[in-house]
Specification:
The chain is α/β, with parallel strands linked by helices and about 450 residues long. It has 3 domains: about 80 residues, 2-Layer Sandwich (Nucleotidyltransferase, domain 5), CATH 3.30.420; about 140 residues, Rossmann fold; about 220 residues, Nucleotidyltransferase, domain 5, CATH 3.30.420. About 40% of the residues lie in helices and about 25% in strands. It has 17 helices and 17 strands. A 5-stranded mixed beta sheet has the order 3-2-1-4-10. A 5-stranded parallel beta sheet has the order 6-5-7-8-9, sandwiched between helices. A 5-stranded mixed beta sheet has the order 13-12-11-16-17, sandwiched between helices. A hairpin with a 7-residue loop joins β2 and β3. α2 crosses α6, α4 packs parallel to α5 and α8 crosses α16. The protein is globular, with a radius of gyration of 23 Å. The relative contact order is 0.12.
Length: about 450
């Protein structure tokens, strides 16, 4: 069987392969999905990739698959590990962090100001895949970013370094890397925080994803995957962000929820409302991602249970203490019974509501000579028109739409949450990440396939 494009999603636990066809027609098709366990522990993710392709063959009822292009997303072996180093945390360090998260990175360390000895030790222990240096608005403070560049060069790490700070430092940073024999590791990009009222994160996001492709060595066997893949490879969370940005151009302001076994990611793509913009104390990126590492419905199930509380969980599920303890002790990644499903739904509801509350900005009362004044800080979600559910939980649970609606019922007095009138959309085929990487080459086809999966086309 000949197929236009295969997209592999190489996750930390599962590898999925999605097949797409008829890209050069007006009606591109999603043909099917195969999956298998990711084989990082076996020392080669190609084993799991080939098993997933075999699974796809079985589902399609064919013995052989040929394809024009193979693309991939990856979060195996911890995904894309980054450290971020800026000047002031609420300004350049925050801007650099937003750029990294939006590209799909996992941020393991953020520092503000001059690097200390303890910071350098942490960087060495983390062994990042990419280091991002920022600091200073254009034509502003210069010394901190230059100091941090010198300190990072002394570490002798053979990893790519992105400089996205004060434009005046670019020549000096380039010279420092060249003199140290590490010029091949340096990528210079526009300042992520060029003015105190402007975030400029998209150029850095694009470079992070390009660097990820060039240095795809984050899991055993990924080097040979790079040889097999003849299209883009980007971090899986970055692919979901790409799909969200693509959908925003067609539908309008939206947010995407991705509840997983280990984390919950939220991607919002919205300019916010004019009303809130006028009282916002600091700029926010149009496209923002947050990842909650404590809110996962399988690996981090115990964290959510603790947040809810056993007595509340018993009441919500209508079960006694022994039955709830049995559900906890025998928790499955995919629920098999009615009560297991209800249990996962309650975990998912908590993950959705809490992660949305953390992602959303809020109001702050400030007192001055003229009395109390209301200001806003953080991401404004009040203009969001659509909420998209993707990931295993929000594409498969029976009451997924009702669970998502719960986030709009939060405290509007303090938080900038979406309104209950938002339209809820579900990624029924669970292909949003695949379509994000697909959009790098086939934007129009990716949008059509995404709208089909959301059942709006």
């Amino acid at each position: 069987m000949h197929i236009d494009v295969l997209v592999a999603e190489i996750g930390s636990t599962t590898t999925v392969v999605n097949a797409f066809h008829q890209f050069h027609s007006d009606n591109p098709e999603f043909l099917g999905q195969g999956q298998a366990p990711t084989t990082v522990l076996e020392g080669d993710v190609n084993i799991g990739l080939n098993q997933a392709i075999d699974s796809l063959k079985h589902k399609l009822g064919v013995n052989k698959i040929e394809y024009n292009k193979l693309m991939a997303t990856s979060s195996a072996a911890g995904g894309l590990k980054m450290t971020v180093h800026g000047l002031v945390y609420d300004m350049t360090a925050k801007a650099a962090r937003e750029a990294a998260l939006g590209a799909g990175a996992n941020i393991h360390l953020v520092t503000a100001g001059r690097l200390r000895r303890s910071d350098k030790k942490k960087i060495l222990n983390i062994k990042p895949n990419i280091i991002l240096i920022a600091g200073g608005v254009d034509y502003g403070e210069k010394d901190t970013a230059l100091f941090n560049t010198e300190e990072i060069l002394t570490l002798g790490l053979e990893v790519p370094v992105i400089y996205a700070g004060n434009i005046e430092n670019q020549d000096d940073v380039k010279e420092m890397f060249t003199e140290s024999g590490q010029g091949h590791l340096l990528h210079i990009v526009e300042n992520v925080y060029p003015r105190i009222d402007l975030l400029n994160v998209e150029p850095t996001r694009e470079v992070i994803q390009n660097v990820f492709e060039e240095h795809i060595v984050h899991a055993p066997g990924m080097e040979s995957v790079r040889e097999l893949v003849n299209g883009p490879i980007i971090p899986t969370p970055g692919a979901v962000m790409e799909a969200s940005k693509l959908l925003k151009t067609d539908l309008g302001d939206l947010m995407t929820l991705d509840v997983g076994g280990a984390t919950t990611d939220i991607h919002s793509v919205t300019e916010g409302s004019d009303e809130i913009s006028n009282i916002l104390i600091a700029p926010e990126p149009v496209a923002k991602r947050t990842v909650e590492g404590d809110l996962g419905v399988f690996v981090n199930m115990a964290n959510i249970v603790e947040r809810i509380g056993l007595s509340k969980l018993q009441a919500d599920l209508g079960l006694n203490e022994d039955d709830v303890q049995d559900l906890i002790e025998h928790h499955q990644p995919i629920p098999q019974t009615e009560y297991q499903t209800k249990f996962v739904e309650r975990l998912t509801e908590e993950a959705v509501v809490v992660s949305a509350d953390r992602h959303a900005g809020g109001y702050r009362d400030v007192y001055g000579g003229s009395g109390k004044k209301k200001l806003a800080e953080g991401k404004d979600l009040t203009a969001v028109q659509y909420i998209v559910g993707t990931g295993g939980a929000l594409t498969r649970l029976p009451n997924r739409v009702e669970l998502i609606k719960k986030l709009t019922l939060g405290n509007k007095v303090y938080k900038l949450l979406p309104n209950p009138e938002c339209t809820i959309l579900i990624d029924h085929h669970y292909i949003m990440a695949s379509l994000g990487v697909l959009s790098k080459v086939y934007k129009e086809a990716a949008l059509k396939l995404l709208k089909k999966s959301l059942k709006i086309l």
